[in-house]
Amino acid sequence: MLHDVCCSQTPTRTRNPLFRHRLHNSPSPASVLSLTPSPTTGMIQSAAPGEFSHRCATVPFDSIYNITEDLCRGRFSSVKKCVKKEVPDQIFAAKIIKKRNIQHALNELRIFQLSHKHSNFVSLHQVFDLPTEAIFILEYAKQGDLQLALELEGCLEEIQAIHVTKQVLDAVAFLHDNKIVHLDIKPQNILLMEKWPSTQIKLCDFGLSRVLTNQRLLEMSGTTDFLAPEVVNYEPLTCATDMWNIGVLIYVLVTGHTPFGGATKLDTQNNITHCILDFPSDLFEKISKKCIDLIRKLIVRMPKRRATVHESLKHPWICLSDETTLSNEQIIDSLDEEEEVAEEEIDELTNEIDAQNFN
To answer: CA angle at residue 288 from 283 to 291, to 5 degrees?
Structure first.
């Protein structure tokens, strides 16, 4: 077993496969309240007068769309599948955000205004501004999210994980270059744009995202298994927080298991803050050393010591995303051969230096 120790205490750990929070007893589409906007008194235009007026529809939601089913529900919003009445084969996702979460809605809308320039983000088609809620009409991914692929496959082949991670890094690089942190990178927020095993993905859900300023950013939210130590400890968040998330994501993609899973949420948080990272041989026996190396560079207790997004994009493991003709086995063999050659070169150089010193 490979073992990285970041502190002296040993956490209590269980091996937890990633799981999905499913909707149970969801209201039927027919029971959803009428979504008729009042443009002059909408919550978005009241909170940010004029800023998004060009984005907001001036007709009722239910005059254009029919809601057909519930997709998911989170802490700050719910997402429903909807179709255009006049063109039923045009399908969208309607994200409904309640008024009490107006700041989340404004943050998300501001980020959408930037992210449309990048191909690895879901696109925003329309906004309905209501007195008690806002509705974002978003691009719909009919193939679902990456968590569905994990449930189907157990874990991804390493070459698939490389392709997915490269696109996530590209998207996150765009955010970080614009001083935005996502803060909720996980398989459920990575959408499959084509039928699996195609690995074309888009990143979604800016509900927890923030624009970095000179003020310290403190947040205690996110999915427990993916929380960075600074989130658990209520310490300032930075771009490095996203990089921890990506490290956990890679671990999950290649094994189907979370690195810090505990029997309870508190156990998991303790495991995260202790930051003892294991690579069990039964999970990582067929995983390349370069993959493990990148995970080790990302899942690091001190944020300043984590690899940045641009450093990660240059990592040898990620650079293999361009090798579309190689099989998974060839990818792993290639990576490990490079590692062995590098180790041999270091040994030869060390022997030369020792010989010179001896003489």
So the answer is: 90
